[in-house]
Every structure is written in C-alpha cells, then in structure tokens.
Amino acid sequence: MIMKISLLQLDIAFGNPQVNYAAAERKIREAAAQGTDCVILPELWTTGYDLTRLAEIADPEGNATKALMSGLARQLGIHIVAGSVASKYDNGITNSMYVFNRTGELAGEYSKLHLFRLMDEHLYLQPGAAKGLFTLDGASCAGLICYDIRFPEWVRAHTASGAETLFISAEWPLPRLAHWRALLVSRAIENQCYVIACNRAGEDPSNTFAGHSMIIDPWGEVICEASGGEEILSGVIDLQKVREVRAQIPVFSDRRPELYH
Ligand SMILES: O=C(O)CCC(=O)C(=O)O
User: Fold this and answer.
1) Which residue spans within 137-218 are E strands per DSSP?
2) Residues 6+ positions from 176 with CB-CB distance below 8 Å
3) How far apart are CA 69 and CA 47, in angstroms?
4) Could you give all domains of the chain from N- to C-terminal order, each with its CATH number?
5) Distance between CA atoms of 210 and 64, rounded to whole angstroms?
6) What is the DSSP secondary structure assignment for residue 11, as one 8-state letter?
7) Ligand 1 probe mutation, 172, 174, 180, 187, most atoms within 8 A of CB
8) Per-residue DSSP letter, 19
9) 166-193 pLDDT, tens per residue?
10) Which single residue of 57, 72, 133, 170 has CA 20 to 30 Å from 95?
11) Best residue for ligand 1 mutational test, from 50, 146, 148 (most atoms within 8 Å of Cβ)
12) pLDDT for 136-157, tens place per residue?
C-alpha cells in the first residue's frame, strides 16, 4: 500500500489550547488540500509543556480533541494521528495520542508510557500501561511519544506484534538533535519499518525545540526531513518496501527472544 503522509511541524502557543486548535485545523486543511492521505501532529500540541496549569487546561478525557479531529478526518477523508494532548481522567492527567481513520472513527489511542523526568513529566502526568497498536486502511501501525524512542525494547514490542509503520509525536529539544536523528534511524533499521516522526518547532519558557521531523524508510534512508521552523513536511511510503527489506535480512525470524533477559 502506498500512502502520502504529512507531518505538521507546528510551533505551539504555550498554555493556549484555543489558539492551538485553530492553528492545527488550518494546517490539517492545508495538508488535505495538497492531497495527503494521513497527517500527524506533535506531542502535547494543545498546551505545550505548561505542566503547572494542566489541571486547568488539559482536555477532559480528550473529548474536545476527539470531536474536532474525528470531524475533520471524516469531512476531509484523511487519517489523523492527532499527536498527543494532555487528557484529564479521574485518576490523573495523561499524555495521550488519539488516532482517527478516514471515516472519523477512533482507530487507536496510546498514553505515553515513559515519562521524561528531565522535563518534570513524572510530577504532573500518569503513565500509560498499554501498547499503541492500530490499523489504517488495513496497514499495521503503532503510535509512540517522544522519550519512548530511547526504549528499543518498547518499540520492538510493537513491531514484534506486527506494526510496519511507527508514528512518533514529539517535543524534542534542540540540544539533543543528534540523538533524535540517531535514535530514529536506528529504530527504523533494527525494526525494518517506516518511522514517521513529527517534532514541534519554536520555543517555550524552558526549551528551544529541534524541528527536523522526518520520514525514514525500512532500510534506514531518510526520505524527507524538515528544517528547524514551522513546516508541513510530506512524503510517500510504500509498505511493499517493508516486505522486501524483511525478506532480504530476516531479522524477525532470526530473533532469539527466549535468551533476551
Ligand atoms: O529523550 C529526550 O532527549 C527528549 C524526550 C522528551 O523531550 C520528551 O519525551 O518529551
């Protein structure tokens, strides 16, 4: 299957969901007008890292985000990997990704499992406890969030369960841009899968973010890479390439998981 994917590398208005909802809708409509099949947004794109105000500005059970994204997906006939948003549930606030298919149905959801202490996430957020697997047009996919890419065993758990495309939403800071590139390329090579990684642009009171969203193919080649600024980055993926790379070097059948602990 061949799909055009657009990564919406947005700047994010700090702690201002209304401004961010309007900006995301504009960019989604712009990408759809360019004939995309699927868009992805960055991490925490409704609030940014305004963690001390999350109790006030997090989206109750993700409902506002779900209503907007489901409606846009259905109206525009595209898949929307709606990045992640701070979602308020009875047991706390999560950093959650919601995925909608072309008919506007919720195809999957994932709450960030590894909370990033360096940016105080563990003080304000509850971790998820389940994998982020979903299918789009029959293709097996997984959603992951930012710091998750430092955990190869967690990424492998998804590809060993069948995922052939990884959608990663991030707010990755500029000082570790070299890690972002190396980790993403490594996850693509070792898992022989597409990596679609959408970072944010701009800065907040504590960090400058790296941009450099990218699509990487199952051989580890960077198909396209954004600049540091706001940008819609689009590229085409062909899932046949996953089959070809996995047939040439059969990593999945050569694994010895019984010895890996
Ligand atoms: O792992 C890193 O260096 C960045 C992670 C991060 O910024 C995040 O998970 O929000």
Assistant:
1) 139-145, 165-169, 194-198, 214-216
2) 210
3) 16
4) 2-253 (3.60.110.10)
5) 28
6) -
7) 172
8) H
9) 999 999 999 999 999 999 999 999 999 9
10) 72
11) 146
12) 999 999 999 999 999 999 999 9
